[in-house]
Automatic annotation (TrEMBL):
Organism of derivation: Paenibacillus zeisoli
Lineage top rank: taxon: Bacteria
Keywords on record: DNA-binding, Transcription, Transcription regulation
Lineage: Bacteria, Bacillati, Bacillota, Bacilli, Bacillales
Protein name listed in UniProt: ArsR family transcriptional regulator
HTH arsR-type domain mapped to chain residues: 12-107
Amino acid sequence: MEAHNSTQLETLVHQQLRECSPVFLALADPIRQDIIMMLTKHDSLNVAQIVERSPMSRSAISHHLKILRQAKLVTSTKIATEIYYSLDIEGPVQLLKDFLATTDRIIEMKTDGAE
């Protein structure tokens, strides 16, 4: 029975790891980390405002914002001709929490089984 539960948890954690991969990818880059930190200090910023606060070009910032959007760490809203970006991390944070909780359960099961 316990081996069955362990296999189910390992399958679940593998699926969760795949779901977290875009978040890990997005968070791995220092420029994207800087953009996230900028957005923690402001409700929203457009590309020009982010470029003003960064050494990167407009096209580079746009590329990084695309990756952050794909990871669902930021959302975009068009106002007139400008697109504003806002931090929206609740979903990705929950994915990471779920992954860590499942990993903890696997570790606990293996530790309990070793005794």
